[in-house]
Amino acid sequence: MTAEPAGADVADENGRPPESGSAAGTGSPAGTGPPAGTGSPAGTGSPDGTGSPDGGRADTGLASLLRGSAEPLSQRYDVALLDLDGVVYLGPNAVPGAPEALAKAAGTGIRLAYVTNNASRTPAAVAAQLAGFGVQAAAADVVTSAQAAASLLASRLAPGAAVLVIGSTALRIAVRERGLRPVSTALDQPAAVLQGYAPGIGYPQFLEGGLAVRAGAWFVASNADATLPTPRGIQPGNGSLLQVIAHATGQQPTVAGKPEPPLHAEAVARTGARNPLVVGDRLDTDIEGAVRVGSASLLVLTGISRPADAVLAPPSQRPSYLAADLAGLLEPQPAVTSQELAFCCGGWRAYGGHDGTELSLDGAGDPVDGLRALCAAAWSLDQVSLEMIRPALAALGPLGH
To answer: Which of 188, 239, 276, 323 is the most exposed place for a label (fewest CB within 10 A)?
Structure first.
């Protein structure tokens, strides 16, 4: 049970938090890091894009967002905080080579933790799924947005406070484990409403949640993913369903999951990480979440975000490292160097882009090195469009598609 921090505003007789709580989506428990959107990795330079007026090129210090490492990442960081879908598995199948790469990484001493926005399953269920892919994991190695949301609630509510839970059994279990009391009706005068995705939720649950929020309950969401991949295609996710209560009450929820800080804080607390590496396939959740809290991050290209997305990423979504897949954990990361107005990595050189002209990329060798050079060149410019980078992406061969 998380105690109320000293000096905090006192909850009312129903365990409700004070009305002066944090704005929607930006709240985080005390000590979890900088406010949303303010964190930047140490040593990465200013993200404000200011710098020399050289043909529209910003300060080339932005290129230092991509870090080099003379040693494998699995030896540089103590814990890898890994996303699941798109990183370890794709739907019903393991990402090719992922189980083997993870086993080798674990053999070097780095701890592996699996951090997911999915609040519909318990950590034990997720660990069992990973075992089916040949990945060794225990329930203690899995951190979910349900756990993060429950910790966020417990940091501000009185012990035993009622929480109206809209979602799965896993979400109710997480709430109970934090010393709070899950309920299902607004008649119980809940101090908070916690909503997560579950296939069976519908209007009766939204009705109770809406009534409770209108009565003053704190509205919290496990995550705000707008969509959810399924075997039948993309369907509405929790972020879409949240808008039922939000629209009806005018209250936007505080979000615990990626890219908001609470889930990262939960993962760090549960693993004891001192120097974590966030590993993900999505710039807008995994990588942005890492940037917000100042953590190093590795973008793998086995899931949602593609090379063009990385090149065009805004400062808030730029990874520290790039790799084709999880084998990148086992390899050193070559540094990007700048030579006059060109950026070099391995056998590749990226240059151009002045006054809206096309960026150019030439060289040979590992195409991921070419992508690193291209990212550094693009990130040093004030503005870059897809049309400006198409020829350079083509030079990467199949990777650039």
So the answer is: 188
Structural fold of domain 147-255: Rossmann fold (3.40.50)
- The DSSP output letter for 294 is T
pLDDT digits (tens, 9 = 90+) for 328-371: 999 999 999 998 889 999 999 999 988 888 999 999 999 999 99
Question: Which residue has tokens 């908001």?
Answer: 260
Phi-psi domain of 346 (left: phi exceeds 0; alpha: psi -120 through 50; beta: other) = left
Distance CA 64, CA 278 (A): 18
Query: Which tens digit of pLDDT belongs to each residue from 100-157?
Result: 999 999 999 999 999 999 999 999 999 999 999 999 999 999 999 999 999 999 999 9
Q: Which two tokens stand for residue 235?
A: 């369907």
Enumerate the H helices of 108-202 as residue ranges.
123-132, 145-154, 169-177
Which of the residues are catalytic? 83, 85
CA dist., res. 73 & res. 71, Å (int): 6
Beta bridge partners of 111: 79
d(CA 328, CA 321): 9
Fold of 73-117+258-331: Rossmann fold (3.40.50)
Whole-number CA gyration radius for the chain: 22
Which phi and psi (to 5°) does residue 154 adopt?
A: -65, -25
Q: How far apart are CA 125 and CA 140, in angstroms?
A: 11
Confidence (pLDDT) at 394: 94
Alpha-carbon distances of 66 from 97, 192, 336, rounded to whole Å: 24, 41, 7
Q: How far apart are CA 112 and CA 88, in angstroms?
A: 12
**Burial annotation 33-52 (CB, 10 A radius, 16+ → b, else e):** beebeebbbeebbebeeebe
Hey, do 73-117+258-331 and 147-255 end up sharing a CATH topology, with the first three levels equal?
Answer: yes
* CA 297 – CA 32 distance, rounded (Å): 17
How many other β-carbons are positioned within 10 Å of the β-carbon of residue 311? Answer: 23
> Residue 337, class by beta-carbon neighbours within 10 Å (0-12 exposed, 13-18 middle, 19+ buried)?
middle
- Give the start-to-end residue ranges of the domains of the chain: 57-71+332-401, 73-117+258-331, 147-255
